[in-house]
């Protein structure tokens, strides 16, 4: 009786062993599972990377849009204080008669004269320090009465160069030529000539001496490539339906028979067409994310980087005509 029991126990053990072996995974099954898992994980990683790229693009685009809007607001506020706006700012780059210290390769986009107020008593000179019969004394008296001078402001656009601090397609530079380097001592800025002095006017202004020395600073980077055509057909000529000569395109080289070839330009009301009235200007500015990471690519570029537009009416005017 003992032998059959032993044989039965061995049989049961063999059955359990075979059953446990048959419930495991084969090598082929493991390889298939690994391949499927790799495909799923790769797909998930791809989605995560694309989401990160999209987030980066949106972040860069949003920052660029805000920078362009701040730059547009700054320029608009600057022009509102102007008293004379040039219809052809390129004359400022004529070295023989105008500004000699403009950045090389920069294109003048806007040029105008604006009042520069003297806000503190410390900036005003003491006239008793000069003999009362001299022109310096008279200049001092006029300055203390006006408490302001006229400054020449030029906005320029320069393309990307070797300067690693400015990686954008182009940038806008603000140039300012003030009357005094130190108003308290009546120290004149090299090259400055007062546009209200005898024999001088705003539109025919030329520098004094052989060179100028103004202040330059970058207003904004990541402005779009100046040579990229915009889908705007002669916008300045269509602003006034009564006369196509009312507004001039600045810079002049931006206008062709079909499109505008620049990312920063303006339409300036002709002073001749609006004699004695306030000049106004339409400004157009377009940014670019190129160089900042997260480039949009050619397909989304036109729709994702629209041109900012604004109209600016100058408050100041020379020889105001009440009828205008």
UniProtKB/TrEMBL annotation:
The chain crosses the membrane at residues 25-49. Signal peptide: none annotated. Keywords: Membrane, Transmembrane, Transmembrane helix. The keyword Transmembrane applies. It holds the Pfam family N_methyl. InterPro entries: N_methyl_site (IPR012902), Pilin-like (IPR045584). It comes from the Bacteria. This is Prepilin-type cleavage/methylation domain-containing protein. It comes from Phormidesmis priestleyi.
């Amino acid at each position: 009786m003992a032998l059959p029991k032993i044989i039965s126990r061995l049989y049961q053990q063999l059955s359990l062993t075979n059953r446990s072996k048959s419930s495991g995974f084969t090598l082929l099954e493991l390889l298939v599972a690994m391949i499927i898992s790799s495909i799923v994980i790769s797909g998930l990683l791809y989605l995560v990377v694309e989401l990160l790229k999209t987030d980066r693009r949106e972040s860069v685009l949003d920052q660029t849009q805000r920078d362009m809007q701040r730059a547009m607001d700054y320029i608009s506020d600057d022009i509102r204080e102007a008293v004379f706006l040039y219809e052809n700012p390129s004359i400022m780059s004529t070295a023989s008669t105008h500004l000699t210290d403009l950045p090389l390769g920069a294109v003048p986009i806007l040029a105008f004269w604006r009042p520069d107020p003297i806000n503190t008593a410390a900036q005003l000179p003491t006239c008793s320090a000069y003999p009362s019969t001299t022109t310096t004394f008279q200049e001092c008296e006029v300055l203390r009465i006006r408490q302001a001078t006229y400054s020449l402001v030029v906005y320029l656009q320069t393309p990307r160069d070797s300067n690693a601090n400015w990686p954008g397609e182009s940038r806008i530079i603000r140039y300012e030529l003030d009357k005094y380097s130190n108003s308290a001592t009546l120290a004149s800025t090299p090259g400055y000539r007062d546009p209200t002095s005898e024999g001088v006017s705003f539109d025919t202004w030329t520098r004094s001496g052989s060179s100028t020395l103004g202040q330059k600073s970058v207003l904004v980077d990541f402005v779009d490539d100046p040579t990229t055509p915009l889908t705007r057909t002669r916008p300045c000529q269509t602003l006034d339906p009564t006369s196509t000569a009312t507004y001039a395109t600045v810079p002049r080289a931006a206008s062709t028979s079909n499109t505008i070839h620049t990312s920063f330009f303006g339409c300036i009301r002709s002073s001749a067409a609006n004699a004695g009235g306030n000049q106004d200007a339409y400004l157009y500015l377009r940014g670019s994310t190129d160089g900042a990471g997260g480039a949009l690519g050619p397909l989304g570029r036109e729709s994702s980087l629209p041109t900012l537009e604004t109209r600016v009416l100058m408050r100041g005017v020379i020889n105001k005509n009440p009828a205008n």
